[in-house]
Amino acid sequence: MISIYSGILRMADLVALQPNMNVKLHIVSASDRREKVFEEIRRPVFSLLEGRPLSEICTFISYDSIDELAQKEFLEHMSESVLDEYSEMPE
After folding, report:
1. What pLDDT is stored for residue 86 in this prediction?
2. Domain range spanning residue 47?
């Protein structure tokens, strides 16, 4: 299993290399790792990215939420904004 920190570090690299990129970012993991994901996203090193801190541009979505979303009728006709219902921001 890839460590949370390692995955977030790669995401931060992407944001650092593409500072003008305007896409929503999501970490998808098991529900029991939610707090660890938020803890890592709020680390000082990720608050120094050009533009905004990673904690302001990255959300958490659980595997359970992805499974629930995959069961939605007409999923192929939904826009990416449907993820807003399932994503969580760090507090």
Report:
1. 82
2. 4-85
Spatial contact of 69 and 82, defined as CB atoms under 8 Å apart? yes
With respect to residue 40, please indicate whether it lies within any of the assigned structural domains.
yes
Q: Please indicate, yes or no, if residue 29 is contained in any of the structural domains.
A: yes
Cα distances from 12 to residues 5, 6, 29, 34, in angstroms, run: 10, 10, 17, 18
In one-letter notation, the amino acid at residue 51 is: G
Name the token pair of 66.
Answer: 């992805």
Domain count, the chain: 1
In a domain, 57, yes or no: yes
The per-residue pLDDT for 31 is 95
H or E, element range at 5: helix 4-17
Q: CA 33 to CA 42: how far, in whole Å?
A: 14
Q: How far apart are CA 49 and CA 43, in angstroms?
A: 11
Given a cut of 70, the residues of the chain with pLDDT beneath it are 1-2
User: How many residues does this entry show for the chain?
Assistant: 91
